[in-house]
Amino acid sequence: MRNVLYRFYEKKLESGLAGLELPKHIGVMVDGNRRWASLQGLGKAGHGHAAGAKKIVEFLGWCSDLDIKHVTLYLLSTDNLKGRDQEELADLIEIIVTLAEQLQQKGRWRLQLVGDIDALPEQSASRLREVQASTANNSGTHVNLAIAYGGRKEIADAMRSIVKKHAEQGASIEQLAEVLTPELITEHLYTGGQPDPDLLIRTSGEQRLSGFLLWQSANSEFYFAEALWPDFRRVDFLRALRDFQRRNRRFGS
């Protein structure tokens, strides 16, 4: 009976979204994997990360079903590279790389690496680049995998790219200052050419950005879910979309 009522509620939520505007780009901070493993009594955090990876496959299916064009998944931050236990970090990187390869095999999504991939072990970076190259022509949802990612570093890298390009053209600092606009910086971000995220979702009850898409989220709507990421259900996702549709988006005005 409980499952029947759940499916009925889910269908009701989904039907309520019909005909209304959905986000073109969703960013997700997949938080709570370690706590989930602890609460399940599984010991190693890797069990939580593995469960979180499984949920990502499911989540991307939900996005494709609703024709969400762009998704960015925050999988590993630059702070994680420095602050995690080395054994846990090695397990997490392997889980992420394996996840990327599983998504590649499904052939449904275009996968793009977003972050400082050179900071990863060489073999892991190589496998991820192969995934990106092999899915470049896929026509499904464009999925950004934010790995070894930091929002401040992304902005710094964009500025570095702009300065380098203008130096190669022989332009002076004064000439660069004349053309330096927010639009130019946006073009040189990791997500250059993509729309900014309309909706950012963070699971596990935490209510902060943690450096995620700092530049791109200027006009994003935020949704904080209490569920830990492995427990995040389709009905939770539909609630986030319903909440988004009820917002009066002012775009800073």
UniProtKB/TrEMBL annotation:
It is an enzyme of class 2 (transferase). Transmembrane segments: none annotated. Binds 2 magnesium ions per subunit. It comes from the Bacteria. GO terms for biological process: polyprenol biosynthetic process. One of its GO terms (cellular component) is plasma membrane. Its cofactor is Mg(2+). Pfam families: Prenyltransf. Its EC number is 2.5.1.-. SUPFAM superfamilies: Undecaprenyl diphosphate synthase (SSF64005). InterPro entries: UPP_synth-like, UPP_synth-like_CS, UPP_synth-like_sf. Mg(2+) binds at D31, E221. The active site is at D31, N80. Substrate binds at residues 32-36, 44, 49, 77-79, 84, 202, 208-210. One of its GO terms (molecular function) is ditrans,polycis-polyprenyl diphosphate synthase [(2E,6E)-farnesyl diphosphate specific] activity. NCBIfam families: PRK14828.1, uppS. PANTHER family: DEHYDRODOLICHYL DIPHOSPHATE SYNTHASE COMPLEX SUBUNIT DHDDS, DEHYDRODOLICHYL DIPHOSPHATE SYNTHASE FAMILY MEMBER. Catalyzes the condensation of isopentenyl diphosphate (IPP) with allylic pyrophosphates generating different type of terpenoids. Homodimer. Belongs to the UPP synthase family. Z-FPP synthase subfamily. This is Isoprenyl transferase. It comes from Aquiluna borgnonia. The lineage of its organism: Bacteria, Bacillati, Actinomycetota, Actinomycetes, Micrococcales.
